[in-house]
Specification:
The protein is α+β, with helices and mostly antiparallel strands and 306 residues long. The chain contains 6 helices and 17 strands. The chain has helices at residues 15-30, 47-53, 67-77, 106-114, 194-197, 283-290; strands spanning 5-11, 34-40, 60-65, 84-88, 119-132, 139-140, 145-147, 150-155, 164-170, 173-180, 182-186, 210-215, 225-227, 233-238, 245-249, 252-256, 262-276. Involved in the regulation of the intracellular balance of NAD and NADP, and is a key enzyme in the biosynthesis of NADP. Catalyzes specifically the phosphorylation on 2'-hydroxyl of the adenosine moiety of NAD to yield NADP.
Length: 306
């Protein structure tokens, strides 16, 4: 990998993340690399400025933070094909990040990257748009939105907690009318996040599939369903005349859904690309450690227990 121009995004309002970003910037600039650096957070989005300011191809994005910081990076950089080195600095669970221990010797990391001693993991993403008009000849009514974890359709009101009735159609066939707190359409990556909290399935990120999961449905017969990655998921909010229903992408607000509009969700043509530095990366180990599965009661060292 060439390191001629690099993005460094650090977690906003986190001193340790910013300090490490500044250290990385100095080291890379000493290697004749141009660095674009800035904070990323709920109120800070540096990526449009990064992309507009780039004088040449961006070789790498270094993201120092937690999973939320990484999700924002993926939504903006996947379409540009920019690989992401995500490191857990100030994060909590860190499902999407490399552990800090493999990154703290940063000079060695730069040598590894320039010597192509790393792996690249591709993660499936979703794209969504609003549509309106006739179902058989719909008009596009919004920009295109991207998500690495999930698209979420649910009501949001300042002074009350309304439920929703969402009619879901997959590839032109109606599946169900879900009444409850909303609906999640998730990637395998997102299956360990909000979808898992809503009792959805956990899907290995090496697969390509889409999980459709109702949030707190009022019917015990409403169940999650896993569908092929090429499926088209259409979601109609029924009975919402007050502009309560909204579309969310990875927990960030995408847009409000006006009466008469619906959401179309498909697999994105773009993949998020993550740099893997660990030599023994394992999704199952991540599940054991982050979700405290096997090993929480009895230590597991890779050998079968009697």
């Amino acid at each position: 990998m060439e390191l001629k121009q690099v993005i460094i995004a650090h977690k906003a309002n986190h001193a340790q993340s910013k300090a490490w970003a500044e250290t990385c910037a100095k080291q890379l600039e000493a290697r004749q690399c141009k660095v674009l650096m800035g904070p990323s957070g709920f109120k800070d989005n540096p990526y449009p400025v990064f992309l507009a300011s780039a004088s040449e191809k961006i070789d790498l994005a270094i993201v120092l933070g937690g999973d939320g910081t990484v999700l924002a990076a993926a939504r903006h950089l996947a379409a540009e094909g920019i690989p992401i080195l995500a490191v857990n600095v100030g994060g909590h669970l860190g499902f999407l990040t490399e552990p800090f221990e493999v990154f703290q010797d940063t000079e060695t990391v730069w040598d590894r990257l320039q010597g192509d001693r790393y792996a690249v993991e591709k993660r499936m993403m979703l794209t969504a748009r609003l549509y309106e008009g006739d179902k058989n000849s719909p008009r596009v009514a919004s920009d295109r939105f991207y998500a690495l974890n999930e698209m979420c359709v649910k009501p949001a009101s300042i002074d009350r907690m309304p439920t929703s009735i969402l009619e879901v159609e997959v590839d032109g066939e109606m599946i169900d009318q879900y009444q409850g707190d909303g609906l999640l359409v998730a990637t395998p990556t997102g299956s360990t996040c909000y979808t898992a909290s809503a009792s959805g399935p956990i899907i290995h990120p090496g697969m390509e599939a889409i999980a459709v999961t109702p949030i707190c449905p009022l019917s015990l017969s409403s169940r999650p369903i896993v569908i092929p990655p090429a499926s088209m998921v259409n979601i109609w909010p029924l009975g919402d005349y007050e502009l309560n229903t909204k579309l969310w992408m990875d927990g960030a607000l995408a847009t409000s859904i006006w009466p008469g509009q619906w959401v179309g969700v498909t697999k994105s043509e773009h993949f998020a690309k993550f740099i893997i530095l660990r030599e023994t990366y394992s999704f199952y180990q991540t599940l054991r450690e982050k979700l405290q599965w096997a090993g929480a009661r009895f230590p597991y060292d890779g050998n079968r227990h009697n």
